[in-house]
Amino acid sequence: MLNDNTDPIELKTLQDQFNLGQKGLSGNDTQEFFVNMGPQHPSTHGVLRLVLKMDGENVKKVIPVLGYIHRGIEKMSEYIGARQIVPLTDRMDYLSAMSNNWGISRAVELAMGVETNSRIETIRTLMAELQRMQSHMLWWGVLGLDLGAVTTFFYGFRDREFLTELMEKTTGSRLTMNYIQPGGLMFDIHEDFVKDVKAFLKYFKPKLEEYEILLSGNVILQNRLRGVGVLSSDDALSFSCTGPTLRASGVPLDLRKTEKYGVYDQVEFDVPVGEVGDCWDRYWVRLEEIKQSMHIIEQLIDDIPEGKFTTLKPAKKLKIPAGTTYSQVETPRGSLGTFIQGDGTAIPYRLHFRTPNFNNLWAITKLGPGGKLADLVATLSTLDLVIPDIDR
Length: 392
Fold this sequence. Notes:
Number of helices: 15
Distance between the termini: 51 Å
Largest sheet: 3 strands, antiparallel
């Protein structure tokens, strides 16, 4: 506080600070500043911090800061056996546990030359598509919440609960499932599995129409998403984006088509592809993927082959042959690659996961600058990031 007794030196210092702050701020000039977005859990699925260089409400630069929940999963995997690695993959992208389990199991099977059967591959495909729907439903609800549509959050979680309970009957878990194992499955499917899946599809089809009416056709959502956060196909490829983020930018890459693992080569389904690469295209692609997942499930659910649910004995020690193996699967968020280097022992010499979320995250450094702070929230939400998949 200034008064008649204020020290002249102190007064001059205050005046200098004020003048420095006002320098160049005449007319329409502004002053740039930095603000932290995060770190806190509600910023995304997991703890992410974005350092934003701002000019008023305008975003000038986005700097992602990671490492808040790093667990050292890859290094841990170099001290344990292949079966023990499977539960660790649940803790990466915890909304894609089935696909993550499948990724490590498929890599081990390729390295060891382990064969499965049609029943195992059909159940794996069904479970992966059910979880793709489950993941996209959660994303849809959270997107609405991020943009102020609170009702969608409750609707998305209400319908997702049906799938959670359905898979819990078979796997015994609701989130971190470690169900898909090298050589097969942890258990066979529950006796109610087929009946429950059919009941869910009958229930959910009209609910998906409600999603379209409630949110997709909302003029506020359209204005928040269309033309915002445009990621060109060239930029998407340069960032090595995969999954819906890449396909929304016009690149029709889907490992379910190109790799033809599981029984995807025995079913018909389309690969939704965007035209603009904006937030709306990323929104639309995921809703279309829900429809395609239902179409895949409908083709398989009545014709699950007979056979064993595993081709390896549960206690069999798995030795990774000397050499390198790389395989990849399509998770709800993109390409999950698994690299294993074996030395003939039961413990991998080196293991590395190429996860989709890491590359998809860095697209925000291109999409954020030039937009408003509110646009950054929409853009980040449509990238659908799960940060523990990055902080491995």
